[in-house]
Amino acid sequence: MVSSTRDISSVHHQSNWCNWKRVSAAGLVIGSLTKISILLQMQCNSSTTLFSFFLPRLPTSPFISSSSSNPKSFTNCSQSTNHNNPHPILPSPDSHSHPNAATARIPTPPWVKGPLRLQPHELANLSNNPPKPRKPLESAEEKADKALTAKESGVRGKKAMSKIVRSIETLPGNQQQSPVVVDSSSFSLGSSDSDDANKKLPWVREEKVVRYRLKKDKVVTQAELVLDQDLLERLRAEAARMRIWVKVKKLGVTQRVVDEIKSAWETNELAMAKFDLPLCRNMDRAREIVELKTGGLVVWTWKDSLVVYRGCNYEVAKNSGISNMVDDDIYGIPGEELSLFQREGDRLLEGLGPRFVDWWMPKPLPVDADLLPEVVPGYMPPSRRWPPYGRPQLKDTELTSLRKLARILPTHFVLGRNRRLQGLAFAILKLWQNSNIAKIAIKWGVPNTDNEQMANELKRLTGGVLLLRNKFFIILYRGKDYLPSEVATLVSERETEIRRCHLDEESSRKKAADSVHIVVDPSLNSSKTGTLYEFWDIQNKFGGLVKGKKENELQLEAEKANLERELRIQERKLFILEMKIENSMRELTKLNSEWVPTENDADREILTDEERECFRKIAQKLRSSLVLGRRGVFDGVVEGLYQHWKHREVVKVITMQRTFTQVIYTAKSLEAESGGILVSVEKLSKGHAIILYRGKNYRRPQKFHSENLLTKREALQRSILMQRIGVSRYSLFISSM
Fold first, then answer.
1. CA-to-CA distance for 380 and 301, rounded, in angstroms?
2. Fewest beta carbons within 10 Å, which of 43, 189, 404, 466?
């Protein structure tokens, strides 16, 4: 009987366990299908009903649909179990197919709280934040007004500029006939409106307006015009394999470089030259200079190197044609088209002097100032006059504008000499008649050049205004008070004529005064106001009222007044010094009250003479030491002692105090504050060394800072106050002597 009962209970238990497993499996299936249906409804709302029609009808478990015959009761039950759920749980449509449903009730799983399906016009909002209201769309008129008045970001970017360019290109005057291009992105599917047809799809990007830098036109060299193409290719192939070159330094293509190139031509038809600053920055100009001075042809150029070909008829033409080539380089090769900038620069520099052929920048070639005469007989600085109510000095804005103007001007002169610049000054005055600014470059590689000395010499000789001076350029402005030579000549002639007229008037006035004699009689009844007679009358009337004093009495009174004034000044100074001393003493007393020196411990370790001598020798060999400054003994010094004692037994403290009593007082203070043992005090070449031993029973303290000592800032303030008091008392002592 007992065994049968056990079998029945076990069977009942197994059936309950199987039922619970079925319920959990059904709940998992329902939750996963619910999530899938919600996601599909969110992705495409229009196809929700079609997809839900093909979903299979889910059979509900008998344990869940206990009251499926009454849908209202099921709804009420679900609402009672979860009051915070805003979505009602819909009953299953197949709940009536299970008549043998159990009466057991279990809580609703958390994944079945939401609705299984949504209507086609409904969307599930799974976020906690409510949707934000949309802003009303602006009309076209409001947008136009806003674009004119309001400040918006992005109106000057690349997109805005590209729109402006497109709008300008589409103007009636700028439209050109072009072939029709069919854009597939302009078509739209399922819409016939013109507005929708003009809209572009989101993945179609706008074309960017890209403005590329114009490529510099390749310069046709003389070798390409003269030599045959096969010969040129052969020479370039040989030039690429060359590894021996002539070094061209900062001075440029000098006679030494030309001689080395010609000596290389004796054994080889090619010679390589490698350039240094500044010619390596302008290899076109370097090629022209090399071809000009050597008479060869540059056939290959690479970075800062070039290869020169001596030519087919080198033996015949090596000693001819150099002077003509120099003239051609200055005034241009015949048939070559010169730019307007170069033509105007040559016209401006014409007649000022010989040109600098080794110029490392583009043409026009400047004037070589070193070839101008050092002394010009009869040279005088120009006369200068500025208009009335004007100032000859330049304002900051004027100086800035003149410097900007000088940047674009060609270089007029090239200078490598510091002194004796009268020839250059005369050429600058001649240039100032046509140009307000003189731009002078300093030669590269010339030893002992001093731009400051050059600028001062030119300012003294010309009287101009220095706009800029550095190691590359000197720029001089002729000034507001500058007068051209013609105007200065007219002014001097006019002044001479006016002076002559003044002299004639003065001589005629003297002749007229000598011819007419006027007798002045003081007895006549005339006014005496402002005359000598009026002064004599006043002296006769009121002279007796003033007490007569002798000269020595006046000097005595003046000396007494000076002494009284000096005494008042000294009393004022004494009062100020006493106030300073009093204030300093008050602050010093306040700081001294915060400092409580530690007394020496009566129970101290005793060192023998041998131990002291040993520690003293150890300390003398130490390289590391602790330097004591003007602050004296404060908490940072004691902390430094502890840090030294962490690695060694002995520490050496160096102090720069002069009197020995102060040194002994400092040593005893360090011994008392640190708890160490004073070994000795040694005299050094500069200052004294205090040697301290940490002791045999030393233990590293847990707290480094001492509360009874001053901080670093307070110690510095105390030192300054003591110094101030000492200086004030010394001033009092000096003034009392």
1. 50
2. 189
| Sign, CA torsion 114/115/118/122 | negative
- How many angstroms separate the first and last alpha carbons of the chain? 136
- Give the containing element (helix H, strand E) for 225: helix 222-226
pLDDT tens, position by position, 218-272: 778 888 888 999 999 999 999 999 999 999 999 889 999 999 999 999 999 999 9
Report the C-alpha gap between 396 and 394 in whole angstroms: 7
Residues in CB range of 539: below 8 A, 6 or more apart: none
Between CA 471 and CA 473 the distance in angstroms is 6
The low-confidence residues of the chain, meaning pLDDT below 50, are: 1-18, 20-21, 23, 26, 43-104, 144-145, 147-150, 174-194, 316-326
Name residue 54's amino acid. F
Q: Which token pair is 325? A: 């080539």
Tokens of 305: 């190197």
CA distance 223 to 229: 10
Instruction: Choose among 666, 669, 674, 672: nearest CA to 645.
Output: 674
Partners of residue 550 on adjacent β-strands: none
The partner residues of 37 in beta bridges, in order of sequence, read none
Number of H helices, E strands in the chain: 23, 13
Query: Residues for the chain: how many in total?
Result: 737
**Alpha carbons 442 and 416: distance in angstroms, whole number:** 6
The packing angle between helices 451-462 and 422-431, to 10°, is 60
Q: Coil, helix or strand for 197?
A: helix
Phi-psi domain of 229 (left: phi exceeds 0; alpha: psi -120 through 50; beta: other): alpha
For 373, residues 6+ apart whose C-beta sits below 8 A from its C-beta are: 422, 423
Q: In terms of Cα–Cα distance, which of 336, 328, 333 is closest to 293?
A: 328
Cβ 361 vs Cβ 355: under 8 Å: no
Cβ contacts of 701 within 8 Å, gap of 6 or more: 642
Query: Given this model, what pLDDT does residue 509 score?
Result: 82
Q: What is the CB-side half-sphere exposure of residue 148 using CA atoms within 13 A?
A: 5
Q: What is the pLDDT of residues 112-143, one digit of tens each?
A: 555 555 555 555 555 555 555 555 555 555 55
pLDDT of 96 reads 42
